[in-house]
Amino acid sequence: MNNYHVCRLAVAPIRKEPSDRSEIVSQLLFGDRVEVLEKTEKWCLIKTHHDNYEGWMDYKQLQKISELQFHDEKAYTALTPLQLDNTLIANNGTKYYLSPGSTLPYFEDRFCYLGDERFEVKSTPIIADKTKFKIEVEAIAKFFENTPYLWGGRTLFGIDCSGFVQIVYKLNGIQIKRDASQQAEQGEIVDFLASAELGDLAFFDNQDGKITHVGLMLSNDKIIHSAGKVRIDPIDDQGIYNAELGRYTHKLRIIKRFV
């Protein structure tokens, strides 16, 4: 059985259980690759290629591809740029509107391909370059400012804290895990907040000591993060201070450097 697939929609929910009423734990973006681990008539248990995340999906939202196409890393470097109008036109003339940071498989001469299906790409794709991280990360992060918070979200129309830093890093050519608790196990420790630099990730814990939040440092006293919406707040050794609420909202646990 060929278990290799790619997401064929602009965005598709990954759910905790095989039910339309189940919690959305993450989302696939167009061009994201998955392996199908189990399948029922409608639902399939998938594992994502980019971050090994598992969950349930509606099988109709996937396109089957060959094992060769699945593992062809060079074919998945083109990404949709930081703009609202990332339109694809399918063979039948219908349109798809993609969020920034979506993957355009096998992009060449204005077209990308999912299996045998061809799509005309109306925007100019970018190739993420991690050597430009320090130059570009701030503008990329700020592009998502005011995006509403959405549990499990990874798009411009709804994003959670770890989905936000993950897509910002992806647009900078760096792949990190999906959840804040997983991301906190990656990278190198920054010993003091005063030593934090642009692009470092700060992690925050709850009363039980569990990592529940992450944000991207803009400097050693400012952070951009998704809480209600993607916003910029001051940060000190206690954590994130929300001036609108007049209190600290997140307790600082650890800072990590990835670049």
From TrEMBL:
Q: Which PROSITE patterns match?
A: NLPC_P60
The answer to whether keyword Glycosyltransferase applies is no
Under the heading SUPFAM superfamilies, the entry gives: Cysteine proteinases
Q: Kindly name one Pfam family recorded for this protein.
A: NLPC_P60
Instruction: Recite the UniProt keywords alphabetically.
Output: Hydrolase, Protease, Thiol protease
- Molecular function via GO: cysteine-type peptidase activity
Per UniProt, residues of the NlpC/P60 domain are 130-259
Instruction: Say which domain of life the source belongs to.
Output: Bacteria
Annotated GO biological processes are:
proteolysis
Q: What InterPro entries does UniProt report for this protein, alphabetically?
A: NLP_P60_dom, Papain-like_cys_pep_sf, Peptidase_C40, SH3_16
Family of this protein: Belongs to the peptidase C40 family.
**Protein's name according to its UniProt entry:** Hydrolase
Origin species: Pedobacter frigiditerrae
- Classification of source organism: Bacteria, Pseudomonadati, Bacteroidota, Sphingobacteriia, Sphingobacteriales
